[in-house]
Amino acid sequence: MSTPATKKKLKLAERIYKDTHFSKKEVERLLNQFDRLTTTDKIDKTSFRDFMHEKFNMMDETMMSSVFRTFDKNNDGVIDMEEWIAGMSIFLLGTAEQLVDFCFKVYDMNFDGYINREEIFVLFKTSLVKHPIEEEPEEAAKDLADLILKMMDVDHDGKVSWKDYLSSVTREPLLLEVFGPCLPDPASKLAFLHTFQETFHQPGMY
User: Could you please report the per-residue DSSP string of 184-196?
Assistant: First the structure.
């Protein structure tokens, strides 16, 4: 006999799967994985970080905080079942445009609709501290921030808008994660997909 919790998951899977890149059965299996991460029907930042570390080897705390915030659409500090499925659909199998939108939101750390020089500097500095170079990390980060901003600021207003970012990534797809990795690497993604997929889906372009 199905428990109330199981019925709730089945009902949710039936309602939302058509808005994702998953089948109904795959949504149900992802919801089972969700249950293993929490006892409260919500995933907190610590549990999310540990999951990303284990499954996708994503270790950067600054980046993980931004990815968590991008999953947490209503900004209540936790990820619910629906946010989990919607986020994973894009994170794992997003279209090219969905991935651009996802990455931009991750990098827009202050929610103002732009990636500014300060945000670029913080993202680069964090990365450079973990990968020592001859130049001082702070100076190197400033130089990189200025270089990338000049490259991607299409309308020359001193910051990168969504349109600037889309234009830049369309021109050069390698710029999608130029501010730091916020998507799973191909091997980790494939390994995780195999834990719940019915058939293999074609991932996004980038």
Answer: --HHHHHHHHTTT
Encoding tokens for residue 143? 């130089």
Instruction: Give the whole-angstrom CA distance, residue 117 versus residue 114.
Output: 10
Q: Using 70 as the pLDDT threshold, list the residues of the chain that sit under it.
A: 1-2, 127-135, 137, 199-206
Hey, which residues does 115 pair with through a beta bridge? 160
Give the Å distances, CA to CA, from 96 to 24, 74, 121, 130, 170. Answer: 23, 24, 26, 29, 9
- Whole-number pLDDT of residue 135: 60
- Cβ-in-10-Å burial (0-12, 13-18, 19+) of 124 comes to buried
Q: Which pLDDT score, from 0 to 100, does residue 124 have?
A: 85
Q: How close are the terminal C-alpha atoms of the chain, in Å?
A: 44
Q: Tokens representing 104?
A: 């931009």
pLDDT of residue 141: 82
- Predicted confidence at residue 64, as pLDDT, reads 93
Q: Judge contact between 90 and 71, C-beta under 8 A.
A: no
Angle separating helix axes 96-107 and 61-71, nearest 10 degrees: 120
Look at residue 4 in the predicted model and tell me its pLDDT.
79
Other CB atoms within 10 A of residue 93 CB: 20
Q: Please report the pLDDT score of residue 6 as a whole number.
A: 84
Instruction: Specify whether the CB–CB gap between 123 and 66 falls below 8 A.
Output: no
pTM of the full structure: 0.88
